[in-house]
Amino acid sequence: MRILVAVADTGGFSAAAVALGLTQSAVSHSVRGSERKIGAVLFDRDRTGARPTPAGEKAVAHARRVLRLLDVLVTEARAAAGAGADGPVGPLRIAAFRSAALHLLPPVLRRLRDRHRGIEPRVRIVREVGAGTAGEVAAGRADVGIATLGGSTPPPSGLTTAVLFSEPYSLVHPAGHSAPRSLPLVDWAENCGSYTRGWWAAQDWIPEATVEAEDDGAVLSLVSSGHGMAVMPALSLTGAPHSVGITALGSDRPFRQVGYVTTPELAATAAVRALVRELRGTIPPGCDRP
After folding, report:
1. What is the mean predicted confidence (pLDDT) over 154-169?
2. CATH of domain 60-166+263-280
């Protein structure tokens, strides 16, 4: 399993051999043996390296998750026997979209570390498009994903999910502008999912975007500089500068749900349960409990 993951992560048999301290022939032999046992080709090989096939993607994802459980097994068994540290220890891998990583996680992780000094949070920012943070959990690259839930594309099957809070969208524009709805639209790829699509389609005042940015931080900066208006969720507006005006969109304003995603096995571990407790105790300003 470690060899399968190494080949997928490094992109080749030679690189995996170097990373694991093995010979290339040992890596090749191991992969061929796995393919025989599974009954499927796991990697496409060519002169540039090796890439997982669809079967390989599945195998590697399961391997990552099993290897992670083996790591957790040692820690939790030692703790249960009284031979380990006081409380959960070791790395806790968290995938989060940008605004959650910037504005939701810092106070959560501060309290988590105060109460559980043995936990080592490792946070990766992942764009919430396509597979998003839930895909990182499904692929075994994260223990917990802070995700947007309730959209038209549900998280991969077999994962455990729960909503933490709902965040409303608001109209964002240069402060003091007399007619913000007349401004051009600034948008970004993560913004308009199924959370807002129905509402968005019914608004005849929203034009096609004339400026598209990489992320919500760039959108806020462009709006602050007078380049247009935007429709943004509450987390993205945390700490917005005074040069930005925020106008409510009325009683029919759209919301999006923010929650966490993990695997059923990891949901029962002490570190993940500790993180979830801290997340449940944190409702960002302007957001509501589900």
Report:
1. 91
2. 3.40.190.10
